[in-house]
Amino acid sequence: MASSEDRIQRQSKSLQFMPNVKGKFGCNSVRELPLTFGMNLNGDMDYAEYEKSLFSSIITLFPDLEDQPELQIMLNIDSGSGQLQSKLVLFILRLINAYKYPNVPNTTAVTQMSNQNYGPCKTNF
Asked: Around Cβ 80, how many Cβ atoms within 10 Å?
């Protein structure tokens, strides 16, 4: 079995073969953006990595957020340990018209969209 360090190195090296993502997201026109992912030294997403990913990769997809219904976003997030702990992050998100919508704790396999969509891939590959 590969160590966490080996896994991280393989994942990092594989980024050079990943295509850019094309999408409109919260922008007026289609943009091409690089693929991003975050992880700590164990290959997991802890709170520090989650916060970096949130502000450097996710929020940047929506440059025109305003206090109008059609210009706000809701982030459906994991309710795992630490994901809801920072009141400062909640405050900053509210200031920029983004809202965190947490999933029900301890129901990952059933309620989380990413597990429903990518679960079979994780199981088979």
From this structure: 18
**Is residue 62 within 8 Å of 26, Cβ to Cβ?**
yes
**N-term to C-term CA, the chain:** 15
The per-residue pLDDT for range 46-91, each reduced to its tens digit, is: 778 888 888 888 888 888 888 888 888 888 776 665 555 677 888 8
Distance between CA atoms of 37 and 72, rounded to whole angstroms? 24
Residues in Cβ contact with 5 at an 8 Å cutoff, skipping those fewer than 6 apart:
41
Please count the other Cβ atoms lying within 10 Å of the Cβ belonging to residue 83.
20
- Which pTM was predicted? 0.63
